[in-house]
Amino acid sequence: MESTACQTDDSLLKGGHRKKKPSAFWWWALAVLVLSLFLSKRKMVQRRLEPLMEPMVERLQSMNINVTQLELPHGVRLPAVFRQENPPRPGRKLRKRGLGPKHPVIIVPGFVTSGLELWHGVACAIKYFRQRIWGSMGMTQSLIGDKDCWLQHMALDSATGLDPEGVALRATEGLFGVDYFFPGYFVWAKLIEALADLGYDANNIIGETYDWRLAVPNMERRDGYFTRLKVRVETTHQLHGEKVVVVSHSWGDNVFRAFMRWAAAGDPEWVERHVAAYVNIAGPTLGVPKAITALLSGETRDTAELGLIGAYLSDNFVPRNQRVKLFRTWGSGIGMLPAGGTAAWGNATWAPDDTPDMAARNLTYGVMLTEVRVDERAQAHGKAVQPAAEKGPDAGLAESVRSWVQHLLDRNDTDVDLVIKKHDVREAVDILVEDGGARFKEQVQTWGAVYEENAKSCDVDPEDPATWHVDPLRCPLPHAPSLQLFCLYGVGKPTERAYQYLNLQTEELLEKSEDADREQPQNEVFWKIDLGATDKKVEDAPLDRGVRASDGDGTVPLLSLGALCARHWREPRLNPSGMRVVTREFPHEPFQNLIELRGGPKSADHVDILGNAGGGPKSADHVDILGNAGVLEDIGLIAAGHGAELQDRFASRVRDIAAAINV
Ligand SMILES: *[C@@H]1O[C@H](CO)[C@@H](O)[C@H](O)[C@H]1NC(C)=O
Ligand SMILES: *[C@@H]1O[C@H](CO)[C@@H](O)[C@H](O)[C@H]1NC(C)=O
Ligand SMILES: *[C@@H]1O[C@H](CO)[C@@H](O)[C@H](O)[C@H]1NC(C)=O
Ligand SMILES: *[C@@H]1O[C@H](CO)[C@@H](O)[C@H](O)[C@H]1NC(C)=O
What we know:
- The chain is α/β, with parallel strands linked by helices and about 675 residues long.
- About 50% of the residues are buried.
- A hairpin with a 2-residue loop joins strand 5 and strand 6.
- Mean pLDDT is about 80; it is low at about 1-20, about 70-85, about 300-310, about 375-395, about 515-520 and about 590-615.
- It is built from 25 helices and 17 strands.
- The protein binds 2-acetamido-2-deoxy-beta-D-glucopyranose (NAG) (4 copies).
C-alpha cells in the first residue's frame, strides 16, 4: 500500500494545489470527447462515452490534476462531469481520522449476485469446465448458444433440491465470487475497496460464498456451509485476536440468522464470543412478495436482483413454464416467501403499511393477491361484460377483464361469469402450494418460514431442517448481549407489494388436469400477472400493470427491510439479551453521475456530464446500495470498532408500520 506514489500524493496534497500539466494525449482525448458532445445526440453520447470516461478521469486524478480547475485550450470548458470534486473514498476519509482495521470482516453475499462455476456437467457443457455458468458475460453467450443445456445445469433436482444426476455447480470461491457480477457490474467491489483504503487486505476481508440456489438446510447438507463458516469465523478470530464483523446482503441475512441459530444450538455463547457486530444490508427479514410471483407464474419484474435473472431469462429465451420449473427447484426461493403471516403482511381489510390514500379508498396491501377468473360454467349471461368493480377503486380491473371476456365472447363462449377473489398472504401461499403439488408443499413447509405452525418451538434441532429457518417475528435472536446489530437499507423506491392475477385455469381445464401428475408444473402456467390492470389514481400506492407498489428499495418492501429492526428486535421478547440494534435508512436518489454509475458519492450538488444538476447520486437501490458512500462509511466505522458512533437514522415511516405489527 505505502508506495512512493502514495507519498507523492500526500506531499502534493499538503503542498496545496501544485499544478501539473497533463500530457498532450490527454488534451487530445478530452478535445475529441467534447467535440463529440456537440456533434452527437445526447443519449448516444452518454452511451458511447460512459466506458471511455471512467479510466480517463481516474488517470487525470492519479496525475493529481484537480479536474475541477481544468480548462481546455481556446477557452473551451470541460463537460460538467469533469468539474466535480473527486468522488469521495469513504475508507480514506476514515483513515484520515486516524482509524484503521480492527475487526476482521466476513462477507455473506446474497441471492443471485455471486458466481456459479461448472464442476460436473453432461456432454453439452463439458467445454465449460470451471467456467462461470452464472455471473459472467460468457453466460449470455452460452445461453444463446444452447439454452436447454444451460437450463439443465442451472436447475437443481426438483425432488431433493440438491445436484441433479451428473451435474454440479459450485460457488466461485472467496472475494472473486463476490466483487463483480460480471466485469463492470460491481457487487462487493466498492466495499472491498473502501476497507482496503482503511488498511484491510485479503487476510482480514473474507468472502464466504455459497451456492445461492440451495435451501438453507441443503447448504449445510451438501456443502457443509454452516460448519465451514463456523470454522472460518473461529480461525479468523484466533488469528487476529478480535471478534469478527459479519456483513450480509439481501438473502444473506436470512442465511446468516439461520446460521446463528444453528451455531447457538451447539453452544449458546458461540455468537457472543465470536461476533462483534452483524451488519444486515437490505435484508428481506420477513421475505418478499415477489417470491410468490416468481414461483407461481415465473414472472419477475425489472428490479435489481431478480432483474439480473430477468436479463438472462427473458420471455424470448425462456418461456414462463420453463422458468417456473427452474425457480421451483431453487430452495432459496422458497426461503424468501413472505414470513410472519397476516400479522406482518395484513389481511383482507387491513395491512400495517397501508397508506393514507389507500385507506381513503378502501384498498389494502393486505390483499396480496387479487384473483380474477372467468367462470365459464356460470349461467348468468353477459354479467362479466359489466364487471362490478368498474366503478370501484379497482378501475384498472375493468379494462383487462373486458378484453379477456371479449376474447371468450369471440370464441362464442357466451356463458361467462366473472369471479374476483381477494387473497391475503396466507391464501396466496396456499394457491402457490396447491399449484406446485404435494412434494412442493412439503418443501415449502421445511424450507420456508411461511407457516406459523413451524414456530411453535423456536428450539433448533440440528437434525431437523425445518427448525433452522424460522419466522423471525416469533423466534428470538441468539444470546449475544455485546453484539451490535445494524440494519442498513434503502428507502423511497417503489417496490412490489401486492398483485392482480389472472387465473387462466378454467373449470374445464381443471377437470382435465385432475388426474395428471401435479408433482411437476404443467406445460401450461395457469396464473399470469394482469398486465392490463393499471390505476394511478392512488398516488402513494399506484397499481401498475398488475403490480401495486409500496415503499422499499426496489426489491424488498419497507415492511420487510425495517420493521423488525425498528421495533421487534429491540424488545425483550425477540432480543432477550438486549443487544444494541441500530437502523440506518438511506433515501434513494438515482445516480446522475457517469463516473459512479451505480451507488455513488454523497455530494448533493452534483452535476452530470450533460450539465443536469440532479437530485444527487445516492442510489439506495437493493444492490446498488453496496456502492453507496454513506453505507461504505458506516461499515468502515463498524469494522474499525467505532460502531457505537452510529445512531438510528430514519427517513421513512417504518416505525409506524412496525408499531402496527403485533404478534
Ligand atoms: C480544486 O479546485 C476547486 C476550484 O478551484 C477548489 O475549490 C478545490 O478545493 C480544489 N480541490 C483540490 C483537491 O485541490
Ligand atoms: C385484520 O387485522 C386487523 C388488525 O389485526 C383486525 O382488526 C381485523 O379484524 C382483521 N380483519 C379480518 C377480516 O380478519
Ligand atoms: C370496504 O370494503 C369492505 C370489504 O370489502 C366492504 O364491506 C365495505 O363496504 C367497503 N366500504 C366502502 C366505504 O366502500
Ligand atoms: C360465433 O358465432 C357467430 C354467429 O353466431 C359466427 O358467425 C362465428 O363464426 C362464430 N365464431 C366462432 C369462432 O365459432
